[in-house]
Write a structure and sequence with these properties.
Shape: globular
CATH superfamily: P-loop containing nucleotide triphosphate hydrolases
Structural class: alpha/beta
Strand order of the largest sheet: 2-3-1-4-5
CATH class: Alpha Beta
Radius of gyration: 20 Å
CATH topology: Rossmann fold
Number of helices: 15
Strand content: 5-15%
Oligomer: single chain
Distance between the termini: 65 Å
Largest sheet: 5 strands, parallel
């Protein structure tokens, strides 16, 4: 009986965690078009975070780099580089998900084998020279469980933005209004994508200790918000990032980008989540 009990205890032990060699990796998530690229361009200027993608490297102040990156061609290139889409897509196929964002991506456990996990980290960190790994990928919002299983000491940060401006930003890129059936149809689709993303993030916010900021707070008080996020990620303050930093504030930009006859619909499809996030208070 003693032997049987001993064997039983052995077989009931949880599997040994795989050592993937990353110290408290940081994952930035949030709905697409919510400011993840802007926030990542600032955080990646911290000396301890990497990989240092091409457009983040170089001379100049944080303000100079931000001004350059806000130009559309630089902005889109940085988003592509930082997200490392080809790598993530190989291990977590998107399966033609519209706008690369949706609850159909939700994973509640880690589907990768030990070999796949090691290969994923190897590919993600090829250019990593800094002590802490940073990754910005909006779709990882739906992979929190998998990431936490792989990296138990991971830090998660997220950004919210007024859903009306998210809708306007989605529609502006590549004339997506037309691609999604016109303004009314597109607004409903984009609004649903945003609401689902916010709902999912808020559902797991406490369990995964996700540190969240709002895009509007970031552009109004960048120094405060950045230092708060750095602290949450166990990173030392970095004055070179925030010194003389000013971000462009464009409140209610959606009103000029969406025809007036669709303003009521835009407000209707985002009303519930806007209230939940305090945008109507």
């Amino acid at each position: 009986m003693g032997i049987r009990k001993s064997l039983g205890r052995i077989f009931q032990r949880p599997p040994k965690r795989l050592d993937l060699g990353l110290d408290r990796p940081i994952f930035l998530v949030g709905c697409c078009k919510s400011g993840t690229t802007l926030l990542s361009s600032l955080l990646l200027q911290h000396q301890d975070l990497g990989p240092k993608h091409r457009l983040v490297r170089g001379e100049g102040s944080s303000q100079d780099k931000v001004q350059q990156l806000l130009e559309d061609h630089h902005f889109n290139t940085l988003a592509h580089e930082v997200e490392q889409k080809e790598i993530w897509d190989r291990f977590f196929p998107m399966q033609n998900v519209k706008l690369r964002m949706g609850i159909e991506l939700r994973l509640l456990e880690n589907p990768l084998t030990a070999d796949q996990q090691l290969e994923l980290v190897k590919r993600l960190t090829t250019e990593l020279r800094e002590p802490r790994f940073f990754s910005k990928h909006p779709a990882n919002l739906y992979r929190l469980h998998a990431l936490k299983a792989m990296f138990p000491d991971a830090r998660f940060i997220a950004i919210h933005r007024d859903g009306r401006d998210v809708i306007a930003s989605w529609g502006r890129k590549g004339n997506r209004w037309k691609q999604f059936g016109g303004f009314a149809s597109a607004i409903e689709t984009f609004g649903k994508k945003w609401s689902d993303a916010v709902e999912h993030l808020e559902e797991y916010r406490a369990a995964f200790q996700i540190e969240v900021c709002r895009y509007e707070d970031l552009v109004q008080a960048p120094t405060h918000e950045l230092q708060r996020l750095l602290s949450a990620c166990d990173l030392p303050a970095c004055e070179s990032i925030t010194e003389n930093l000013e971000l462009r504030s464009t409140p209610s930009l959606w009103r000029s980008r969406i025809p007036e006859e669709y303003h009521d619909l835009t407000e209707q499809v985002t009303a519930q989540m806007r209230t939940r996030l305090g945008y109507d208070s």
